[in-house]
Amino acid sequence: MKNYALAEDEVILLTTEVYYNDVEDKLLLTLTSKKIIIEKVEIKKVSLLKKEEDKKVINIVNISDIKLYNNKVQVHQKNTEVYIQTIKNNFTIKFDNAIEAVKFVTKVTDAVTGTTISDRGVKKVKNAFDKVDDVLGFDTRGTVKGVIENGITGTLLKGIKRKDK
């Protein structure tokens, strides 16, 4: 494949340089809303002041091909390396620094799940409150509201709010 053209409904989320599998040269990684595209960029001198870029696609991975296990995207980061498990194959991408790797993992997770990191965080907190409520049998949110309105002593004197069943 020579070059990749974006689809009409496809958006670029991240572009960075990476090392991929056994290729020794730096490659250009483009993360879109639907695909991960890895390209080799060769710069050719046309004249003294003019340079021309020639891009050759090395690999294209559909975002929908990335595996999920227990609703967790199977993209794992360790320092500057990111390991991706897909339906077809598994591969490693190495970034120049850990910050770029974190950005990539976050954006891939956003694209696969269709949610942002803050939405996933809110969902985790809500699930934790619900588990505590179910196990202990009282209304955590109501108790916290009582502490804020009446203080700790007022809440203890009035009693902890029981969960209505």
Number of DSSP strand runs: 9
Order of helices and strands: EEEEEEEEEHHH
Number of helices: 3
Mean pLDDT: 81
Strand content: 25-35%
Low-confidence stretches: none
* Major beta sheet summary: 7 strands, antiparallel
With strands numbered from the N-terminus, the spatial order across the biggest sheet is: 4-3-2-1-9-8-7
The first-to-last residue Cα distance is 62 Å
3D structure, described in words:
With 165 residues, the protein is an alpha+beta fold. 33% of the residues lie in helices and 35% in strands. It is built from 3 helices and 9 strands; from the N terminus they run βββββββββααα. It has helices at residues 98-113, 117-136, 140-158; strands at 12-20, 27-32, 35-45, 51-62, 68-69, 72-73, 75-78, 81-85, 90-95. The strands form 2 sheets. It has a 7-stranded antiparallel β-sheet, covered by helices on one side. The longest helix is centred in the last third of the chain and has 20 residues, at 117-136. The protein is elongated and about 85 Å long. The termini are far apart.
List keywords for this structure.
165 residues, alpha+beta, 7-stranded antiparallel beta sheet, two-stranded antiparallel sheet, 3 helices, 9 strands, elongated
